[in-house]
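Methods, example record. To illustrate the input and output format used throughout this study, we show the complete record for Threonine/serine exporter family protein. The sequence lines were provided to the predictor; the line carrying structure tokens was produced by it.
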Amino acid sequence: MTLDANRLLKAASVAGRMLLESGAETYRVEETIIRICNAYGVQHASSFVMPTGIMTSFFYENRNYARVERVYERGTDLNKIHLINDLSRRIGDEKISVRDLEAELTLIKNGQRYSELLIWLFSGLSAFGFAFFFGGGLGEAFSSFLVGMAIKTVSLKMETLQINTFFNIVVSSVVAGFLSVFTVWIEIGSNLDIIIISSIMLLVPGIAITNAIRDTVAGDLVSGLTRACEAFLVAVAIALGVGFALSMCMSWIGGAL
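The corresponding predicted structure is encoded as:
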């Protein structure tokens, strides 16, 4: 069967884009793209990946093929990363055709994620656990649970509306600040600091920070610095949102919280 090189190039690039959008490290994306291309017998497969774009090329039957894939969104989906990595390793063993590769990538892309109810529940439980980690009691933990669920509700809604990530974080942080003060005001919890810190842990860019370090250590300096800047901007957004909420509450209540 004759290999459709353009189709293979598109499939490999799409797989790389899905990995990058799901929070994969730069070296992992490049490695996966090259592995997919090499599995079909092309020569000199190469890939250059940055957080906002992917460039892939290879040589096949005396022709050079190249493609640029722009990346606009980035999130976290470790299950999708696992599925694509597994698929790239099965290609050679199972002799998967390019058409079947495209079909499997489509299934992975459209695969059912966790329900919103489950996401809300475990977001709340994460904040609940962080409250004990930071030395809070049951009141702070329950308050963090409620605030954590509210943060995730706002975040998911704004993602649905395709709101800018920076603005999404700012608004979610404002909600976290106001609700944390409210839970203290109605005396569910008593330590405002612990409630706020436990809640905003859901917004802390842990994946971006980890990938920035891993990419830098691996020699991908551009990606490492870019991800570090992204993490810094998210931290600034969190500080702006919580700071605004606390300053407004202080002006309304009159005095220190």
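Annotations derived from this record:
The mean pLDDT is 86.
The radius of gyration is 22 Å.
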